[in-house]
Hints:
This protein has 448 residues and is of the alpha/beta class. It has helices at 4-19, 25-41, 46-60, 63-66, 71-86, 114-127, 142-155, 168-182, 199-212, 227-239, 257-266, 287-294, 300-310, 313-324, 330-342, 346-350, 360-368, 373-385, 389-393, 400-410, 414-438, and strands spanning 102-107, 132-136, 159-160, 186-190, 216-222, 244-248, 270-274, 282-284.
Amino acid sequence: xxxxxxxxxxxxxxxxxxxxxxxxxxxxxxxxxxxxxxxxxxxxxxxxxxxxxxxxxxxxxxxxxxxxxxxxxxxxxxxxxxxxxxxxxxxxxxxxxxxxxxxxxxxxxxxxxxxxxxxxxxxxxxxxxxxxxxxxxxxxxxxxxxxxxxxxxxxxxxxxxxxxxxxxxxxxxxxxxxxxxxxxxxxxxxxxxxxxxxxxxxxxxxxxxxxxxxxxxxxxxxxxxxxxxxxxxxxxxxxxxxxxxxxxxxxxxxxxxxxxxxxxxxxxxxxxxxxxxxxxxxxxxxxxxxxxxxxxxxxxxxxxxxxxxxxxxxxxxxxxxxxxxxxxxxxxxxxxxxxxxxxxxxxxxxxxxxxxxxxxxxxxxxxxxxxxxxxxxxxxxxxxxxxxxxxxxxxxxxxxxxxxxxxxxxxxxxxxxxxxxxxxxxxxxxxxxxxxxxxxxxxxxxxx
Length: 448
Ligand code: GDP
């Protein structure tokens, strides 16, 4: 996960600061030296690290901090604020033309994630009630047009293309006419990339820009390339001018240097981050939430967004109702697990919870004690799926022969089936106690 090493290191430094009741200037400076190393190791731009440390140190060695209450906590607060400022302070949203269609021009090097990101963005815009059109302007690689068509098909978004014999400028102009006829209000132009920046590429992009006057030029860069991503962003912005940056593959980048440097170096906001292959994995970028994640304070707000994007509200309400009425069956349990699975790997979800990132990777692993939550869930699912509808609704009918049949059906042992039934009964008991507590009845709190 992104920032994993940085996050672990910073939390180690802060644990030591917090453990001291009184802080001296020397303590702060020593901590800042560690922070500096951690940031450099995370591949953050050197100049930015220097400025960052200077700012934090100046604020942190002030008498108000050192002589105030909880000086360690105060230093962390300053680091948090400066991290947020570094990443742009506020969330930068897309802007839309007053007179539709709004044209977004997607640019970037080959392999950065332009085509897939164009598709994800179009899919999200459609979910918000807009009518997007994808435009295939990479005329150099027939495979690129095909790829956009596949992406479009996946998300059910129409793709405008004119093959490889027409110039990208001509295609863009025709796409605008087509969009007007078909009442599309957003156009996403997937331009051609190159392996490296060159004059020819920049000229072509400039020509498209002049021809269609896009509302925004969105630069897609690959976070995994670290400081190269920042250099690429600087060049594109200098030569073409960009309005926003989309940082992809942050899920595969354990360092996170690009995310921390690119805004400061280019002065252009990161608008979205790519955290995986699915449509919902293209997330709006919130500097404050990202700082929270880095400092191990969790990112509950993003977790809630993820839940809302993946879980059907009515289903969740029905489920809560059943829990309250003590009507929760194994069938519901199964449905609940399937909903959770839609949100991605459980370990990533755990990483968004406050406190848990602070445990560090190793600690999380030792807390799980060799249990892979994903596999565990798949096993539980398989057991429930081996049961008949009647058994799922009423587990009390599960006698010896039935358990034997279920175990054989899912390739588990009878002990596994028994364990699941026991867990389920305990869960129900706990729900009942919680319901009683909410109703004001006396009930022992189940966790203690
Ligand atoms: P393009 O050449 O710029 O159009 O790049 P593509 O859209 O073809 O993407 C290149 C590869 O990166 C594809 O395999 C994508 O699935 C992958 N990719 C794009 N964004 C992300 C992301 O946020 N996370 C991960 N893990 N992979 C991504």
